[in-house]
Amino acid sequence: LTLAMALGVMGSAFSATLERSQRERALYDAGADLRFQYSGGDRSKGPGRLAAVAEDFQGVVAASDVFRSTAHATTTGFSTSGALLAVDANRIADVVWFRDDFGDGRSLSELAQALQPKTPVDSADAGIALPPNTTGLALWVRPGSGADPMNLWARLRDSSGQYVDTRVGRLDFSGWSRLTWDLSPQALGGRDFRAMPPNLELVPPYSLMSFHVTNQFSASEPGTFFVGRLDALTPGGGEAPVVDFQNIDGWSIIEDFGRPGLYALETSEAAAGPEVGTSARFSWSTGGVGLKGFRTGGPAAPLPALVSPSFLEVADARVGDQVILGLSTYTLLVEVAAVVEYFPTLDSVEGPFAVVNLESFFSAANRYSPRIPGGPTELWVSTNGLPVATDSLESAMRDAGARVRETHDAATLVAERVDQPLVSAGWGALLVLLFLAIALASASGVMLFSYLDTRDRQTEFALLRTMGSSSGQLRRVVWFNLFLMVVCGVGLGTWVGYLIGTGLLPLMEVAEDGARVTPSMVFTTDWQRLLISY
Question: 46's torsion region: left (phi>0), alpha (psi -120 to 50) or beta?
Answer without folding.
Answer: left
